[in-house]
Amino acid sequence: MKYLIAAACVAVAGAGMALAEPVVGTWKTEVDDGAYAHVAMSKCGAKICGKIAKAFDANGPIASENVGKQLVWDMEPAGDGSYGSGKIWQPSTGKVFKSKMSLNGNVLNVSGCVGPFCKKQTWTRVN
Prior knowledge:
Residues 25-125 form the DUF2147 domain. Residues 1-20 form the signal peptide. This is Imidazoleglycerol-phosphate dehydratase. This protein is mainly beta. It has one domain (22-125): Beta Barrel (Lipocalin). The chain has one helix and nine strands; from the N terminus they run αβββββββββ. β6 and β7 (95-104) form a beta hairpin. The termini are far apart. Residues 1-18 have low confidence and may be disordered.
């Protein structure tokens, strides 16, 4: 009986680790229009979303009306560090792009398109 309970505990713990998304954490965006952000990525149900946690310019942290706003949403994990079918908002233009992401260690390649116009950024992990 002890072994059955222990095996069940190991199985539950293993399932929890398998459900963890490696993209969850805080990411530093590239500079856009003189500023960059730290984006807190988290699970939103079965999908991934990200909110602006802090904003910066060349001199350091800045007060921004965009802190706390959703930047990434509806991102679906596709396996092997790939995410798709999401949306991303570009604060400097106010545009929302169809987006996908690809994770490689501590680098997150983010791309988004509106019609034929696409943009890409490489984000780095903060924590």
